[in-house]
Design a protein that fits this description.
Layout: E1 105-113, E2 124-128, E3 156-160, E4 166-172, E5 177-178, E6 184-185, E7 188-194, E8 202-207, H1 212-217, H2 219-222, H3 226-230, E9 235-236, E10 240-246
């Protein structure tokens, strides 16, 4: 045969364009009628001047000669944590907010369940708190720099949930904090929650049951009704404190944990 598949110059009729000629790949000037568009031309691969509109626009400007160390990257798209958090998010010492053996160490556990009250076993929590006297070892603390109490306190914790949906951090109970208008915030731990199906983290707080007077004066707790306020107050355990978090509830007056709008 003189018009076989590999025979140079063999005619080939593209879809929806009977009898139209098609030059082989890499043949200059080849034309191709795309599906449902008879007669349209498309510059072949490696043909100077060929253009193809990207399906998705880049999230940051692309500069010739840039690499990942110099390119002006934009915001990364939000993603669910799902099963991928174990690839690189957990730290070996992530749950250890204070060094082992520090005075006053407690275990703070958080159990996370979904709207069906099923434990969320692929959840991850992050915690942030002041030290035992209500200070931050950071230059942005308006009261000035101070050595953390106990020394070595990191303030930040990260832990993943187990098969029961429970994550634990090892820390100390924080002190009270000054707030606006000369108010005082009761001792608390800020809690961030990441889990499957959530594009943004949820943020709430952990308050302590043995701080009744401070809790009564806390500006955040004071803004909630009694039922909602109770959902943010942990209960005592043999080694520290525990808080149950319910991610959602179809009943607006149900068990869903109050979350902060940031």
């Amino acid at each position: 045969m003189t018009d076989g598949t590999n025979s140079p110059g063999a005619p080939l009729a593209p879809v929806n364009s009977p009898g139209a000629p098609l030059a082989p790949v890499n043949s200059p000037g080849a034309s191709l009628a795309p599906v449902n568009s008879p007669g349209a031309s498309l510059a072949p691969v490696n043909s100077p001047g060929a253009s193809l509109a990207p399906v998705f626009a880049p999230r940051y400007p692309v500069s010739v000669g840039s690499d990942f160390t110099t390119a002006p990257f934009g915001q990364t798209p939000s993603q669910t944590v799902g099963p991928y958090l174990h690839i690189g998010l957990p730290w070996a010492d992530g749950p250890d907010v204070v060094p082992a053996g520090s005075d006053g160490v407690i275990d703070v556990t958080v159990t996370i369940v979904d709207g069906n009250r099923t434990p969320v076993t692929d959840a991850m929590i992050e915690t942030w708190q002041a030290d035992a006297v209500g200070r931050f070892e950071h230059p942005d603390d308006p009261r000035g720099p101070a050595v953390a109490v106990p020394e070595g306190l990191r303030g930040f914790g990260r832990a993943v949930a187990d098969a029961s949906g429970t994550a634990v951090v090892h820390t100390v109970k924080p002190g009270a904090l000054p707030a606006e208008d000369d108010l005082v915030e009761a001792p608390h731990i800020d809690l961030g929650i990441f889990a499957r199906g959530m594009l943004e983290r949820l943020v709430t707080r952990i308050y302590f049951p043995d701080e009744e007077d401070a809790n009564a004066a806390d500006p955040v707790l004071s803004s909630l009704n009694g039922k909602e306020r109770a959902k943010l107050i942990a209960h005592r355990t043999t080694s520290g404190y525990h808080l149950d978090v319910v991610l959602q509830d179809s009943d607006p007056n149900g068990d869903e944990t109050p979350f902060f709008e940031l």
